[in-house]
Fold these 3 entries.
Entry 1:
Amino acid sequence: VDRNTAIEHTLADPTDLWVVPEDLTRINDFVLKPEGACIDDLCVPIRQDRDSEIFVTREEQGWINVTELADRLKQRYVVDADARVWGFGEIPATRSAFLKQAMAPDFKLPDRSGNPVSLADFRGKKVMLLSWASW
């Protein structure tokens, strides 16, 4: 899912992105529950009764380290510290469902005439996808 999320408050840290739990949900749909950060059936255990590399409490506010969560999920990310911009890639564990089903996720692309074509339009038919780039 492509999204841009402006975060108003972060914890000052030169290397990691710390956000409040509500912003975590806005960033990547994870919800902080008593057992940890969860999305659908995927949960990353997070103890919230003491400070750690993934969760801290400051002035009675809990903070989640999004970069540590990404590391635990093997999610790639990039940062431009000067611009205060973070970019997070797909979470590999959330992509495994379609691999188990041997079903590609639906997407739309324009055909040669510019008309949108959905992969779902070809359900039940054999499809060859060819990807090419000049680089």
Entry 2:
Amino acid sequence: MSQPPLHLKLRVNDEEHHVSTPPHATLLETLREDLELTGTKHGCELGECGACAVLVDGSPLLSCLTLSRECEGKSVETIEGVAGDSSELHPLQEAFADLGGSQCGYCTSGLILTAKSLVENNDDPSRATIAEALSGNICRCTGYLQVLDAVEKAVQVLKDRRLSEPGAA
């Protein structure tokens, strides 16, 4: 006997969405299949690769292990929302592109979102801190050096922006 669908109100990338989904649907399934936000990738579906990472209330979360219903009333951010309303790329997206931080691109959205959480909570992370923060994200192409370089570059760009703001010390 199947269970009736749940009717959820999800806030994704600063927009409210109403979805009707099975009670067992993961956030990954809801994002990709119901909301057509395909930047979040199906990877291992075991919580081991990080390709499905999104931000929930600003913290990285593996969407393949999270039920959609657990995210009602929370703010979800996917790769499609990283730049916000800006027509420009986020410094992390720019740095990944400029420094070869992504090759095949499959892991990139999870890496960028995980790194975004880090740089929003630590304005001067060391390379070791960056590596530790990204340790749950597997990349089979880059060898990670370009990923670490890209995050360091983005940290510097963000730091320079803060210092150039009016009233910055």
Entry 3:
Amino acid sequence: METTMRAYCGLDCMQCSAFLATKNDDDALRQKTAAEWSAMFQVEIPAEAINCEGCKGDGVKIAHCSQCAIRASAIDKGFDTCAECDDFPCEHVAFVIDHMPEARAALEALRNA
């Protein structure tokens, strides 16, 4: 069984509360995640918006993912993650790797592999 599902930005979808809430149809986790993310990003995120099957698949995604510059850039360049890009780290992925050290560590490990 796969234990990680790496997003373009380096985050592990299998550890993401939105992914887990979707996978387990967990409304309490959706509520908790919406409250945490609303505070973190200083924007109101409703619990019903917390649904994601990962940024690389065809399934449902968090609404802002359709406008995600990281995702768009990686898809456009044909990369599995930002670690493959000569411009890494760039302004697109800066917020994620500056605020989520696990994403930075994963991308740096992939880059150095």
